[in-house]
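Morning. Coffee machine broken again, so started the prediction first thing and wrote up yesterday's gels while waiting. Chain of 152 residues, entered below exactly as on the submission form.
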Amino acid sequence: MSASPLSPADQTHAEANQWTQHGIRLLEQGDRDSLLEARLCFEQAIALREELPLESNVWFRWGLTAGWMNRADALTRLGGAERLTDALQSYDIAIAHLHRLPLDTDPLFRWRLGLAWMNRGHVERTIGGHRAGEKALSCIDTALQVMGGSEN
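Came back before lunch.
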């Protein structure tokens, strides 16, 4: 028996996964050029996934959150005030999408939400400035609440 053909949405999801995996390989290299290219890969994956019917398949939204979080990671590693601010915005978008997942149906959903809050706290601390420590600790507190079962 042959496998049934993928739906157009599943094909798009698979293509976005390829972009994400390529971006992760580049992210792991860590040099500036690789990080810049990784960011572009994650942005391509995001653009593809934003066209998917996110309400019909939780894994489409799950993949979209990975794109936003990986984009934020690349921006954080690149550094600079503008990129760090952009990283915070990427984490905020990922967090908003994660809240739309059924957090109590799969521990991975809650885990990724907690991770997004922890990473956001790291960026707040890296940015520095007035109240940076307080902002970072607030994010970590939220991550702990999320992982403990509260949905902040």
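The two ends are 47 Å apart (CA to CA). Going to sketch it on the whiteboard this afternoon.
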